[in-house]
Structure formats: C-alpha cells, structure tokens
Amino acid sequence: MPDLSKRLTILREKQGWSKAETARRLGLKAPSTYGNWEYGIREPDLDTVRHIATLFDVSVDYLIGQNSEPSYKPVTTKEKNDIAKRLEKIAEDLRYEEHQHLNGEYLQEETTEYIIDSLEFTLKQAKKMNN
C-alpha cells in the first residue's frame, strides 16, 4: 500500500484532527498504532482499511493508491460542469498530491504555490462577478 501513509495524513489534516483524535475515532486503544500507519512503519489490516475509508468517506481504492479520486460516489453532471469545483479539485491535488507535472516537467514548489494562489484569487474574483 504505497500511498496509504501519505493519504492518511492528507485526510486527517483536512479534517483538522490530531493522530490521537483519529485513533480514537477509529476505536484504537493505542494512538501510536495509527501513527505507525501514517509513518509507513506498519499497515492496517483490510477490515481496518475499510473502517478508515468509511471514517473519511473515501473509497478503499483511493486509500491504497488505485484511484486518484477519493470519492466512490458518482459525480453528477451539475458537479462535473461546475468550474469552481473543478478548480478547487486542481488546487487540492496541487496541495496534497506529489509529482504533479506542467507540460511534462515536475512542478517546482514555488510554481505550485503560484498556481494555487492564482486559482484561489481567480475563484474569489469570479464568484464576486457572477453574483
């Protein structure tokens, strides 16, 4: 499960939970168990992976790196055509997913931050103008 530790960290941080809080929500007796999963020292068993997927409302495929989309729910046409949602997803991918490319080249950190800032500014301005 190569991406599991990274994705656990991303999902937990998005919720604003500590490792201890996440462990509590998963019903673990020792918070260090969860910490070991995030550090990639150990991996949870399949039943626990399913429980983690339920907790974070993502698919097991996403957790184990088989799918880049976290949700297993079908996307509606309205959501698919919503530019704001699509741009927010791009910004999220830039923030949390490693090895993003621009014209076939790896994005430098400064470039990534510039694109995220630009997307956020553009969305803010577009929402003001569209109202």
From TrEMBL:
Which GO terms fall under molecular function for this chain's record? DNA binding
Q: Which SUPFAM superfamilies match?
A: lambda repressor-like DNA-binding domains
Q: Which SMART domains match?
A: HTH_XRE
Q: Does the keyword Membrane apply?
A: no
Task: Work out whether the entry's keyword set contains DNA-binding.
Answer: yes
- Entry's InterPro entries? Cro/C1-type_HTH (IPR001387), Lambda_DNA-bd_dom_sf (IPR010982)
Q: Which domain of life is it from?
A: Bacteria
HTH cro/C1-type domain mapped to chain residues: 8-63
Q: Name one Pfam family in it.
A: HTH_3
Entry-linked PROSITE patterns: HTH_CROC1
Q: Which UniProt keywords apply?
A: DNA-binding
PANTHER family from the UniProt entry? HTH-TYPE TRANSCRIPTIONAL REGULATOR XRE, TRACRIPTIONAL REGULATORY PROTEIN-RELATED-RELATED
Q: What protein am I looking at?
A: Transcriptional regulator
Q: Which organism is it from?
A: Listeria booriae
